[in-house]
Amino acid sequence: MRVVMFGYQTWGHRTLRALLDSEHEVALVVTHPKSDHAYERIWSDSVAGLAEEHGVPVLLRDRPDDDGLLRALKEAAPDVIVANNWRTWLPPEVYDLPPHGTLNIHDSLLPSYAGFSPLIWALINGERQVGVTAHRMDSGLDTGDILLQRAVPVGAEDTATDLFHRTVELIGPLVTDSLDLIASGRAVWTPQDRSRASFFHKRSVADSRIDWTWPAEDLERFVRAQSDPYPNAFTHHRGKRLRIVSAAVSAGRYGGTPGRIFIREGDGVVIVAGAGARSGRLPGLVVRRVRTEDGAELAATDYFRAMGGYLTDRP
């Protein structure tokens, strides 16, 4: 089949790599220009660079809404469009143009975690597995009928970075298997169960701010969900931003006010956590490593030289 690929960053790069290695012909690639957004500077393998290495025509677009792009798509005459990590809505004159429509690859187990940053949100929420879905694009965002899904388990100590590397390895085989089903006429499309659907917005700085009224178990996942190279979870100490690089749930139970810098435990320092912390029945968050505004990373026991004081959500 002739394929046009829409994609961006490492997700798009892996998709294009699979297409180039397949028996299908890549007729055109459409990708976004480079961005300064914090979440788009990471996992930034160049889709345009890979296409150019293989002599595939490339179009750079922020949005697919100009006549020139539509003309180029019609000239490419694809049998199918494959999209992965395309950051803006595709209009029906684009996604319905090929005979087989547009196959979108999304890094969640749809219908859950449609939208943006699904791995981070899934880890924050304590999901036991994550994965990748191949579905047919329709007028909604990540709402179309599902062709294939692949899943991996979430371990007790996994970070978002671990889950990224695990799920990105699923992309190539998923793309290849999906196109083989479509080309052979064996594709079976299953409507999504909308009662199970959830949709998440693009993350910003505010979404990494720690709320010490959350239970320690939730905060520990919150820290793991924002592992390097993602922007880290952060709080404020003495008016300055402090990033939490590594943390654990305390063995002991500690009472008081959420955010209190309390006591050493093991290799870290306990911060009182949870809306019900005044009961003394809740664990705290053991902060192990921190990163200061100037980028210095320290053991929490070296940074917090004395106990007392508070970590706060604002300066």
Structural account:
The protein has eight helices and 16 strands. The protein is α/β, with parallel strands linked by helices and 315 residues long. Strands 3-2-1-4-5-7-8 form a seven-stranded mixed β-sheet, sandwiched between helices. Strands 10, 11, 12, 13, 14, 15 and 16 form a seven-stranded antiparallel β-sheet that branches. The N and C termini lie far apart (57 Å). The model has no long low-confidence stretch (mean pLDDT 96).
SSE arrangement:
Blueprint: E1 2-7, H1 9-21, E2 25-31, H2 47-53, E3 58-60, H3 67-76, E4 80-84, H4 92-95, E5 102-106, E6 114-115, H5 118-124, E7 129-136, E8 146-153, H6 160-184, E9 199-200, H7 216-224, E10 233-237, E11 240-253, E12 261-265, E13 268-271, E14 283-291, E15 297-299, H8 300-303, E16 311-312
Parallel strand pairs: 1-2, 1-4, 2-3, 4-5, 6-9
Antiparallel strand pairs: 5-7, 7-8, 10-11, 10-16, 11-14, 12-13, 13-14, 14-15
Protein name: Methionyl-tRNA formyltransferase
Keywords: Transferase
Domain Formyl transferase N-terminal: 1-169
Q: Tell me the distance between the termini.
A: 57 Å
Q: Topology as H/E string?
A: EHEHEHEHEEHEEHEHEEEEEEHE
Shape: elongated
> Helix segment count?
8
Report mean pLDDT, rounded to a whole number: 96
The order of strands across the largest sheet is: 3-2-1-4-5-7-8
Quickly give the structural class: alpha/beta
**Could you give the count of β-strands?**
16
Instruction: Characterize the main sheet.
Output: 7 strands, mixed
Radius of gyration: 23 Å
Give helix % range: 25-40%
Can you tell me the residue ranges where pLDDT is under 50 for at least 5 consecutive residues?
none
Strand content: 25-35%
Domain Formyl transferase C-terminal: 205-306
Pfam family, one: Formyl_trans_C
EC number: 2.1.2.9
Organism: Streptomyces flavalbus
